[in-house]
Amino acid sequence: MAQRYVRVQNQEGQIYYGLLQLSLNVQVLDAPPWLQGQPTDLILEPDNYHILAPCAPSKIVAVGKNYADHAAEMGTPVPSEPLIFLKPPTSIVASETEIKYPHLSQRVDYEGELALIIGDRTSDCTPEEAQTKIWGYTIANDVTARDLQKKDGQWTRAKGFDTFCPLGPWIVRELNPGARLQTFLNEDANPVQSTCIDQMVFAPDFLVSYISQVMTLLPGDVILTGTPEGVGCLQLGDRVRVEIEGIGRLENTVAAR
């Protein structure tokens, strides 16, 4: 199993980065791992911590319509270049926490995605250089108020509500380029989304390079790489699970705000 890098909070409220062991103990690092954090002698046992989202980025850069089948289901062409937008860091929540359904919306959708974690300050890099800037991978759910997205035209409000970016549960360093992404609702064994991540229109290295031509990416920043076909609405009480082979599962319930 690949090493799993986590961010946790202990019972006293202190936040640490660490390595999740098979025993579920966490070996604490002395800094975020992308800042060369090294293992310490501090070990947290499972009953003395809870898992947070695996990073605290300065920004979340998301990519729209990066799978051709999703662009088609939205009734739009595939963009000729990456369609990027921002989600606020305040939208991030951890796995096993609640997505809060805003009273301003009547249609909230799930969007399972692969997320990239940036490991180094990145500006104006080439796709080849971008390979070295991607520190690791995790899972995201780009929750979207679909009715507000259509109403507003631009996407800030629809994508920016608190809890609209479940992220985690941990970060891995390596990922099979053909890993399968699947999204499940409640107890249904049949996924509502299922694709291999190599079906992206624009690959991760190209996305990092493209975004770096616009804005400087900082260590710990997150890039959401787009969602495949099969997006759909969430109801109060739903449980949504996004799985990516080689990473794990991100699971959240939907509750009233």
CATH homologous superfamily grouping of the largest domain: Fumarylacetoacetase-like, C-terminal domain
Q: Structural class, from helix and strand content?
A: mainly beta
Q: Low-confidence segments, ≥5 residues, pLDDT <50?
A: none
Strand content: 35-45%
How far is the first residue's CA from the last residue's CA?
Answer: 37 Å
- The number of domains is 2
What is the top-level CATH class of the largest domain?
A: Alpha Beta
Helix content: 10-25%
Instruction: Examine the secondary-structure arrangement and name the CATH architecture of the largest domain.
Output: Alpha-Beta Complex
The rough form would be described as globular
Biggest sheet: strands, sense, closure?
A: 7 strands, mixed
